[in-house]
Amino acid sequence: MNEKYQLAVIGTGSGGSEAALLAAKKGFKVVVIENGALGGTRLHHGSYAVRALHASVRLHGEFFKGKESGIDADLFTDSLVQSMKAQRAASTRLARELQHDLERLNLRVAFGRGTLVDEHRIRITTEYGKHEEIEVDSIILATGAGPDYIGSQNSRIINSDQLLDRIHPPAHLFIIGGGYVGCEFAAIYRGFGCQVTLAEQSERLLPDWDESVGAHIAQQLAADADAGPAYLRRRCAETKGVADHRQCRRNRDFT
């Protein structure tokens, strides 16, 4: 006989985890289904991960300024590698805290791919191919979003998620797309001393934002490039024949 739940949540990112916790606090029998790392994009490739890197960039910048006061900045040449490791450690810690919160409220966490059999049944398939069907009264699809471009393994053309998965910094990072994701990564990697080129096919950065915001970000990036150990060039470029790393995102697949 299939296990029955009042609520099933597919995805444990910001929306899914909060919905599951709220339902459990109200007494519902809840199962959450996650096909990747617990916490989803939010903890591992989204806002939390990027904020951790931003914090490291600010600290890294202070060390470079401190060279004028006798601090040897050469001691921090491996700062990006260490910062990436610290970011992963923070994401892992937050994921453990989330799992503790879920288990404390007696939520079941099922790892695998959730497939909708019908409006009240879900098939869970683990990474080892094992299948389980559960019955549910209600379902929340919280599969989140992912990069529009899917890069191949060991390719030099990658998306933002794959960039965060790489510990060692590139000597020269070419970013296609001057939206908020492109600008964010340009600032982070330039701050760590990487050579960065940011390409945007529109006439300005952040083309979907207010014009004054785009102008301010462009000014800040140019100022940082002039002050730091690396440079950043903003240029308008055609993207034909080049992998698109713009901030466009698509819903993660679910069946």
List the helices and strands and how they pair.
Blueprint: E1 3-10, H1 14-25, E2 30-34, H2 40-44, H3 47-65, H4 79-104, E3 108-111, E4 113-118, E5 121-125, E6 131-141, E7 145-147, H5 160-165, E8 172-176, H6 180-191, E9 195-199, H7 211-227, E10 232-235, E11 249-251
Parallel strand pairs: 1-2, 1-6, 2-3, 8-9, 9-10
Antiparallel strand pairs: 4-5, 5-6, 7-11
Helix pairs in contact: 3-4, 3-6, 6-7
| Average pLDDT metric | 82
Number of strands: 11
What does the largest sheet look like?
A: 6 strands, mixed
- Percent of residues in helices: 25-40%
What's the SSE pattern? EHEHHHEEEEEHEHEHEE
Summarize the structure.
The protein has 7 helices and 11 strands. By secondary structure, it is an alpha/beta fold.
Key features of this structure:
255 residues, FAD/NAD(P)-binding domain, three-stranded parallel sheet, 11 strands, 23% strand, disordered C terminus
